Amino acid sequence: MAAQAKRAQHTANAKAAAKKASNRAPSFPASSSAMSKRRAQAASAALQRTESLPLYLRTVTTPLGPFSIYVDAEGAVRCCRWQRSAPGDAAALRREAQEVCAAMQSRCYKSALVAVAGVWADGAAGASEAPGGGAVALLRNYFNPPTPKAGQPEELERLLLQVPIVYPPTTVFTAQAWSTLRHTVPSGEIISYKGLGVRVHKALKLPASTAVAPRAIGVAMGANPIPVIVPCHRVLSSSNSLHGYGLGLRFKTWLLRHEQADVAADKLRVGEEENAVSTVASRRS
User: Fold this and answer.
1) pLDDT tens string 126-148
2) Mean of the pLDDT values across residues 160-180?
3) What is the pLDDT of residue 264?
4) Hey, which residues are catalytic here?
5) Residue 25 main-chain phi, psi, to 5 deg
6) Cβ atoms within 10 A of the Cβ of 101, count?
7) DSSP code per residue over the chain
8) pLDDT in tens, 70-82
């Protein structure tokens, strides 16, 4: 009961903060410049938002570093990614959470005020009472199987399918692409962009005279805000080449190895080499 009361209080505080922010009248200098107009339009759009979406950041320890999940008050995952800030830097982690929430509001939840309601690193005090405990436990066992049997593909898939998620507002096609991927391509298996397009075409009952272009599937995968749980890492090119993964090829390669996917060792090695080259280039720039 105490945990439920705390969660309710967290949600109430976040909604109150969002409402206060939305009711604060912005002041801009009287000017006809394009910049002032854009600012005024953005402020007007903010005032029109009537919903609030408080999100709670939870992190999961993995062999590749902390994995961040953003959950709602009910514990459903709305977004996830590998943590970019240094582990242990609480201030940097909160700033990162604010940036992620701002990006989600801009890209997905334009009619809602997305705000950070709480930040809990893995094992932090109070984390056990925060929303998202179920998702954290499932993902912890996915990334760190306690026994060899628990690391088998079918067991890993069972864990991922139990993680509660909520898709953001999107097109029917994109939502179907995510759902088809999650429910028809299990852990240990891979599929091509073209192959997934065929399944999406069938699921949407599109005319036989039409086809879903692999490029359209690629766009849908690139827009996926819940990677790993919605396993876009299992989608490869027709030649099984590893490329085009938003989180980075190092993560895609590790996930495929972790799930014991049937991908040739040389393909995985090339993926790792390409990632190393891109990492060095980004550091030099």
Assistant:
1) 888 899 999 999 999 999 999 99
2) 96
3) 67
4) 232
5) -70, 125
6) 23
7) -HHHHHHHHHHHHHHHHHHHHHHS-----S---HHHHHHHHHHHHHHH--EEEEEEEEEE--TTS-EEEEE-TTS-EEEEEE--SPTT-HHHHHHHHHHHHHHHHHHT-TTEEEEEEEEE-TT-TTGGGSTTHHHHHHHHHHHS-SSTGGGSHHHHHHHHHHS-B-PPS--HHHHHHHHHHHHHS-TT--EEHHHHHHHHHHHTT--TT----HHHHHHHHHT-SSBTTB-GGGEE-TT------TT-HHHHHHHHHHTT----HHHHHHHHHHHHHHHHHHHH-
8) 999 999 999 999 9
Q: Which domains does the chain have, with CATH numbers?
A: 51-162 (no CATH), 172-282 (1.10.10.10)
pTM (2 d.p.): 0.77
Rg (CA), the chain: 21
Residue count of the chain: 285
Question: What's the rounded Cα separation, in Å, for the pair 69 and 120?
Answer: 10
- Closest among 228, 195, 190 to 77, alpha carbons compared: 228
With 0-12 CB in 10 A as exposed, 13-18 as middle and 19+ as buried, what is 214? middle
